[in-house]
Amino acid sequence: MALVISALLPVFLLIVLGFILKRSLLRLDTQWHGLERLTYYVLFPVLLVQTLVKADLTTVPVAGVGGALLLSLLLMSLLCLGLRPLLARCAIDGPAFTSIFQGATRWQTYVALAVSVNLYGDTGLALASVAMVAIIPLVNVFSVSVLAHYASPEKQSVQAILMTVVRNPLIWACAIGLVLNTLHLPLPRIWHEVADALGRSSLAIGLLVTGAGLQLAGMFRPSLAASVAVFLKLVLMPVLAIALALWFGLTGSNLAIVAVCSAVPASSSAYVLARQMGGDAPLLAQIITLQTILAAFTMPIVIALVA
Fold first, then answer.
1. In 10 A of CB 102, how many CB atoms?
2. Which tens digits make up the pLDDT trace of 167-195?
3. Which pLDDT tens digit goes with each residue over 203-256?
4. Closest-CA residue to 15 (of 237, 216, 174, 236)
5. CA 149 → CA 27, 181, 213, 273, 297, distances in Å?
6. Count of alpha carbons within 13 Å of 204, Cβ hemisphere only?
């Protein structure tokens, strides 16, 4: 447990620092919006490409790690859709349902990668990157589709949904990294030096941006919708993923990385997507804040149980 806490502590301290900076030194939303775009479109994609280029995927149980997380995502998505009629009877409308769906299925990649690195170094980073390759494309397709069906004032066409997914820079980064790794294409030394520098900064800046986006309003009186999303993501999702990982025969660091990736809070990028597509963005902000704060307590327990 002490090892797990020591790996998690720097991550959550950076989130807290981002929260403080937003309310003291960097108060303008435009400042954080710029950092968010820089991380999302440049720093984080470079980290993904570089990690996958350097990873020895022959030593990584790609099918086990990716399969466990992929199946847990599918099961959680089906569960959310199955709960839709019950939630509707509880006065939870379409836009609010999309926030529950995103809160239960999306994951905070900055936290997952940072904790994985702190726990297992380059091996942890490679394993977490494999998890991202498995999850990022599918979770974006699901989120956009659910928002288009339940929240958008005008129904999105299949082509529009696909274009939204295709424009995701993280999906392209995963694809490029895997192609370069598979083909063993040599890259110049200058690329590695620049990419390593950008990659190191991406996690720190990403965690600061996550903290800056936290909204404490309504935190002490969470709505039913927010409570449901917190339970599904922080309790049920890790149970599903770990059970599937054990079924795939994963142990040690492989099992621990599945636990890390499944136990992280929802991504702040979900909030941006909700604003763009008519979801209940204030509800999602409350969900992300609650999950991020509570994950500081639930993640050490989940990881310690399997590490």
1. 29
2. 778 778 888 988 998 888 889 999 999 99
3. 888 888 878 888 777 677 888 999 999 999 999 999 999 999 999 999 998 999
4. 216
5. 35, 37, 26, 14, 35
6. 5
pTM of this prediction? Answer: 0.84
Q: Residue for token digits 């909700």?
A: 274
Which domains are assigned to the chain?
A: 2-306 (1.20.1530.20)
Q: With contact defined as beta carbons under 8 Å apart, do 70 and 135 qualify?
A: yes
User: Tokens standing for 134?
Assistant: 């498995």
Expressed in angstroms, the distance from the first to the final Cα of the chain is 9
